[in-house]
Specification:
The protein has 210 residues and is of the alpha/beta class. The chain is built from eight helices and five strands; from the N terminus they run H-E-H-E-H-E-E-H-E-H-H-H-H. The chain has helices spanning 7-14, 32-39, 51-64, 100-110, 142-151, 175-184, 192-201, 206-209; strands spanning 23-26, 44-48, 69-72, 85-90, 111-119.
Length: 210
């Protein structure tokens, strides 16, 4: 059976020289992306606001014998110099930050000219919610969805330090809304889902799906 591509494998298909670039992972969490890069001989820097996650990332890395760096900071205040980064990874982070616009400002600031990155965001009208694992709640007004989550006993402990976690407080987007937000901060967007479909099935299939 063919092994499934990792996130890094999929990025390399789009950015062939990725593993030679200076990479920063915004909201690096428990360090899985950084450590996977380290396994491939790539040094990357994580930016993470939660002290417990920083400690866990570094401890896991040390136990495996690799070398990563994680700096304390938020997506809205990235402690890195202007124009110092070749690629940023922002995977499943934008919904949790306080200010997505400020996050994009900071991302633009640290990127070099003609650099790029990866950004994923939850679909405002997705069939199944990725945080609460419930179907159709993203089709409802947020207050209704919040109430339903409570009735089903699916609320979480929202008192932690990992950013916005309540559905009513998180930032979800349609593709057009996210594209507009990024454009307002100087970014263009390529939907790599389309590129993935074209690689696997050919160019005509996208017209059946989008």
């Amino acid at each position: 059976m063919k092994a499934m591509n990792t996130h890094i494998d999929n990025l390399v298909l789009v950015v062939p020289d990725l593993l030679t670039r200076k990479i920063v992972d915004i909201g690096s969490g428990k360090g899985s992306f950084l450590i996977e890069l380290a396994k491939r001989g790539v040094f990357a820097i994580g930016v993470e606001p939660t002290p417990e996650y920083i400690e866990l990332s570094l401890a896991t890395d040390k136990a495996l014998g690799y070398a990563i760096e994680v700096v304390a900071g938020t997506a809205e205040h990235i402690p890195l110099p202007d124009s110092s980064v070749d690629f940023v990874n922002i995977g499943e982070v934008i919904e949790h930050v306080e200010d997505p616009s400020q996050m994009l400002n900071e991302t633009y600031r640290i990127l070099k000219t003609n650099a790029n990155g990866y950004l994923s965001a939850p679909n405002r009208f997705g069939l199944k919610d990725q945080h609460f694992h419930l179907y159709f709640i993203n089709w409802m007004p947020r207050t209704w969805a919040h109430t339903l989550i409570g009735l089903l006993g699916r609320h979480k402990d929202y008192s932690g330090k990992a950013g916005r976690q309540s559905l009513v407080a998180m930032h979800y987007y349609t593709y057009s809304a996210l594209k507009g937000l990024c454009a307002a901060h100087g970014f263009g967007i390529t939907d790599i889902r389309v590129e993935k479909i074209e690689r696997n099935y050919g160019p005509s299939i996208k017209w059946l799906l989008f």
